[in-house]
Write a structure and sequence with these properties.
The protein is α+β, with helices and mostly antiparallel strands. It folds into two domains: 124 residues, no CATH class; 215 residues, no CATH class. A hairpin with a 2-residue loop joins strand 11 and strand 12. The chain is globular, with a radius of gyration of 25 Å. It starts with a strand and ends with a helix. The relative contact order is 0.18.
């Protein structure tokens, strides 16, 4: 069902200076007639959803106060998971729900990245190699904890295919419980200390992914352009010239740091509209963090990337999720079928929860929750539903609730003949 958002000006207005919808309205029809590459159906759907999000085309519900006659317009949102306007609120709701199902343990943020030399194969094979990435990276940590500590952890895994400049960069962000349930005693145990054999995990990750890749090749399941198996193995040798990237951050407390990371690295669209710095004619620009160059305090320098629409649109749309592909997955004791004893679940205090969500929100897009838009601020009364307007090319459709209309004398005199 569509989300509802107050809007008094027929288009979504917020603190954002620019809207992707405006850029697509101006350039999409021209680009789609002569695109750089094949446009998938889900990419068409994503663009169309962004263009109509919170406009009359999706419907505008009207609510009225029966005492003073004040009318509130409530716009439907598209709820497309690639829409930058809809994704953040959905992410925060998801994060709040997940927090209530996590171990009462510290957690670690872990990132598994695929070498860029594999990008061609990944794009050609789509969900098959991305499935391997998510599955094998989770197995690396599950196997290591089972072997070394005899415990089963909880893992939340989120796939991203983009870097700061929205280039193709396949990697997985994980929230991993730094401990778990002992497979013999069934007791909750925390891993003491932060040390891990980094090189071991790094090599295990590479080997497990490559084994699955070679198996696909040998079974003729891999789309490729190699003439022989020898050529394929030579290619993998070239890929392994550099170490596969694996990043582990120190254990984080619950819930302050964990909820912040969950919010930052989960279901958000790949480009926040708050980062768009310019839209002029055919040009769009957005800010990004350059992690290779840092300031005096060790923070990445913020730079600006400027592109014309013919380069920007395909760069952005390559990250539209594949149809029915699950970007967020759960492993170990966080998998759906696993039941964690209630005494092992973290229980947050109401005051702490409010502070954490607020801090996480301010850390990212400065999104602010709006008060109940159906409450009349003048009369402290709940407004009643009147009708919904849908914008169509041929006409505008009204759906009335006559019984509610007749309750409001002011509205009836103003709008009803």
């Amino acid at each position: 069902m569509c989300e509802l958002v107050e809007n008094k000006n027929n288009i979504w207005q917020g603190k954002k200076k620019f809207r992707l919808a405006d850029f697509f309205d101006k350039h999409w029809d021209t680009y789609s007639q002569s695109p750089k590459g094949y446009i998938r159906q889900e990419q068409y759907d994503a663009v169309n959803s962004i263009r109509v999000c919170r406009t009359e085309k999706l419907g505008v519900e009207h609510y009225v106060c029966t005492d003073c006659g004040e009318v509130t317009e409530v716009y439907h949102s598209c709820q497309n998971r690639f829409c930058p306007t809809c994704s953040w609120k959905d992410t925060m709701k998801w994060a709040e729900t997940i927090e209530k199902k996590m171990f009462n343990l510290k957690h670690r943020h872990v990132v598994f990245t695929l070498p860029h030399k594999l990008n061609g194969l990944i794009k050609e094979n789509g969900k098959y190699l991305l499935n391997i990435l998510m599955r094998e990276s989770a197995d690396v940590l599950k196997d290591w904890m089972a072997s070394k500590y005899n415990i089963k952890p909880g893992i939340i895994s989120v796939l991203h295919t983009y870097g700061e400049q929205k280039n193709y960069h396949a990697h997985v962000h994980m929230i991993v419980s730094w401990g778990g349930i002992n497979m013999e005693t069934k007791q909750l145990e925390e891993i003491k200390g932060e040390y891990v054999n980094f090189k071991f995990l790094q090599n295990k990750y590479r080997i497990k992914f490559e084994d699955a890749l070679v198996e696909m090749f040998d079974n003729d399941e891999l789309k490729h352009h190699f003439r022989t198996r020898i050529d394929f193995m030579r290619f993998l040798k070239q890929v392994n010239v550099k170490n596969w990237h694996l990043h582990l951050e120190p254990p984080m407390k619950i819930p302050t740091e964990v909820i912040r990371y969950i919010g930052r690295y989960s279901k958000r669209a790949c480009l926040s509209e708050y980062k768009i710095t310019k839209m002029e004619d055919d040009i769009i620009a957005f800010s990004y963090k350059d992690y290779k160059n840092k300031d005096f305090y060790g923070k990445p320098i913020v730079k600006e990337l400027e592109l014309d629409y013919y380069d920007f649109i395909p760069r952005l749309l390559q990250h539209v999720p594949l149809k029915r592909f699950r970007l967020v997955r759960y492993y170990g004791h966080y998998a759906g079928a696993s039941k964690i004893p209630a005494e092992y679940i973290f229980i947050n205090h109401e005051e702490e929860q409010g502070n954490d969500i607020e801090e996480a929100t301010e850390t990212t897009d400065n999104t602010q929750e709006v008060a109940d838009i159906r409450e009349c601020i003048h009369c402290n009364k709940t407004k009643i539903y009147l009708y919904t307007i849908f914008s169509r090319k041929d006409n505008t459709l009204f759906k009335f609730r006559e019984d509610r209309l007749l309750q409001c004398k002011e509205f009836r005199e103003k709008y009803v003949a």
